[in-house]
Design the sequence.
């Protein structure tokens, strides 16, 4: 029996689809992960740079650390999973992509309606006027980069201990609540509030599909767990849903 029959889903452009992505979707693009083996923190240079930066975040030291990360990510290209999400967004009328990633690879692939829960490393934010500025080039000409109001910018990225943008959070929770199909891709589902979103979708009757080569805390709750890498698991799932 195919997925659509098993789920009792009518796949049409009207289906409300929400996708939550985490660091795992970018692994096949070569972006270093946060925790565990092979993570960014195993690199002494990352630890050294990160330990020098701290609040108020609009400093040269913070940007040196971010420039180090931006340079690494700049060499990475979106993979088949990122591009499949672009196709899905074109097909569904109400499609919401929620990401915990700050690498900007969804934007690079061509996704449009994205709720970036933790911000985007290719943007800066003014600590005085609040303006958000695109900073697509690395290396930056001067550190810290400046706003047009002349104040220095901070990275537009949520730092540990900071609260998330309430507007982004509200849009993500509202979409999760209304979802009929929810895909959780490449996330360990341990970092709140993102981890609550698939559970909220489940409680409201959505079918929840996880794509992750490893078991997560979500695995036993979901409608289907696909134990594959994102770039290998998502394109065939999308084909099957469309068939
Ligand atoms: P994690 O690093 O916690 O989890 C990555 C997940 O990806 C794990 O569950 C892996 O099993 C899975 N994975 C590994 N290879 C994969 C592949 N090829 N395809 C698909 N999945 C794969 O990342 P997140 O859940 O995103 O916060 O963690 C959330 C947040 O934790 C990050 O956004 C970051 C960090 O603290 C901030 O930057 C504020």
Sequence:
């Amino acid at each position: 029996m195919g997925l659509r029959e098993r789920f009792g889903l009518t796949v049409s452009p009207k289906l409300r689809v929400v996708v939550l992505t985490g660091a795992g979707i970018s692994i096949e693009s070569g972006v270093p992960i946060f925790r565990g083996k092979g993570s960014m923190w195993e690199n002494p240079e990352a630890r050294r740079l990160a330990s020098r930066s701290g609040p108020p975040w609009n400093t040269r030291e913070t940007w040196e650390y971010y420039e180090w990360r931006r340079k690494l990510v700049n060499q990475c290209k979106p993979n088949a999973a990122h591009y499949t999400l672009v196709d899905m967004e074109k097909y569904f009328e109400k499609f919401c992509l929620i990401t915990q990633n700050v690498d900007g690879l969804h934007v690079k692939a061509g996704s449009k309606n994205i709720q970036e829960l933790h911000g985007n490393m290719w943007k800066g934010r003014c600590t005085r006027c609040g303006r958000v500025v695109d900073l697509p080039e690395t290396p930056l000409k001067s550190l810290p980069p400046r706003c047009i109001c002349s104040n220095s910018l901070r990275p537009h990225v949520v730092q540990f201990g900071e609260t998330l943008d309430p507007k982004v959070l509200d849009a993500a929770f509202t979409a999760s609540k209304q979802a009929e199909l929810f895909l959780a891709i490449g996330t360990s589902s341990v970092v709140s509030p993102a981890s609550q979103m698939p559970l909220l979708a489940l409680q409201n009757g959505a079918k929840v599909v996880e794509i992750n080569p490893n078991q997560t805390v979500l695995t036993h709750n979901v409608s289907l767990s696909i134990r594959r890498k994102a770039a290998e698991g998502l394109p065939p799932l999308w084909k099957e849903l469309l068939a």
In short: The pocket of 2'-O-acetyl adenosine-5-diphosphoribose is lined by residues 22-25, 27-28, 33-35, 100, 102, 118, 158, 186-188, 191, 212-214, 216, 229-230 (CB under 6 Å). The CA atoms of residues 195 and 236 lie 25 Å apart. The two ends are 13 Å apart (CA to CA). The first strand starts at residue 17 and ends at 21.
